[in-house]
Amino acid sequence: MTEFAYLCAHSLSEAIALLNEPGVRSRVLAGGTDLINQFRGGEVDCDRVVDVAHVPELRVIGTNGRVTIGAAVTHTEIIESTDLQESGSLLVKACRQIGSPQIRNIATIGGNVINAAACADTLPALVCLGAEAIVTTAGGEQRLPVSDLVTGVNRTSLPQGGLVRAFTFDLPTAVCRTSFMRIGRRRAMSIARLSVATMGALDAEGAISTIRIVPGAAFARFRRVDAVEEMLIGRRPTPGLLAGAGACMADQFLAESGGRWSAPYKRQAIAVLTERALTEVLDS
Amino acid sequence: MKIAFTLNGEPVELEAPASVTLLHLLREYLGLTGAKPGCEIGECGACSVILDGRVVNSCQLLAPQVLGREVITIEGLRASDGGPSDLQRAFVEFGAVQCGYCTPGMVVAAQAFLDRNPAPTRGEIREAIAGNLCRCTGYQQIVDAIEATAARRRSTKGGRGR
To answer: When comparing pLDDT for B162 and A42, which is higher?
Structure first.
């Protein structure tokens, strides 16, 4: 690996100051499970890494009124948080699918988002939950929907010298059910070939009152699929309707992602995955 | 840079470049070759060590990330008489070792897991070692060894048998 210096930031203001020091090319290090592989592959180069894993402002988990999760919280900490098991269960389900115990013990939610892999497991869940990233820069803080922060595969709109401090989202209503489904080559240590994060609820008459569906490793960006949601809202979740929603998702996928080598497989797989996810969430 | 941390219960302090991984610090600077370089991209678990009570891949940590923290390697796992621990003896007893390359990582992962979950199901054991690849045994004997160790520790009323 190339040589670089290491500095550990002890506060948010110190981290921002180090990241914005003129003439020094700094990289944020949180868990490092992606970054160190990229160093080894010669994909990134910098003068120093700024370790933010112990910055207190990035280590919080709060569920009072609104859920807030610091960017340096590890996947294991999310999975083991009793508060999040209730209020952020979709995210907990997604984090359980990531890598291995070794990876989950070190890798952070902020790293998973900012690395912005097409197969990132937290991203469909966060976008489905309507999460915002709280981005800190030298000029102050701004909130950005996660769906706008991640602009493409390994691409984000994070400003130079900026840092994601935390993610925040509204508590899903009690009647909402959630599902995170994914296909990989094996259950552990595989990257998602496809994933679908879903949340939904039925009203007193058994019609669909809430539905959000966000696939992963399918579209160029992580987003809710309006066409699928619109055909579901207000209707009863019959098997025929949910199969139709799967077919609609496949059409959307083909229209946007076109004839990539994996399209013949993914077209069928995403239809079935969508149908199964909707059935799990909407089955009364 | 100066890197100081606790290694197998003893304080260590040494000079190494910031870009060295914990795996190479252990092997090349400290002479502890129990943690193995396998894939070196975090897929195989051969380099597993315990960091502050959690199993981690030492190939995916920069050495300075363990500053002030506690690292336990396979060399730090032993019975009180200095011989193999109950878990290590069970690996031998159940035939959980063939070529042996994955074994230090497997034992380390299993130790960290049993410390947190003394009464695991077989499924939980399989999940706990999902990040450790073995190309020889087919895993059954490894799961058997971990399961038997957990049962024996429970029957000795919390005795850890190390």
So the answer is: A42
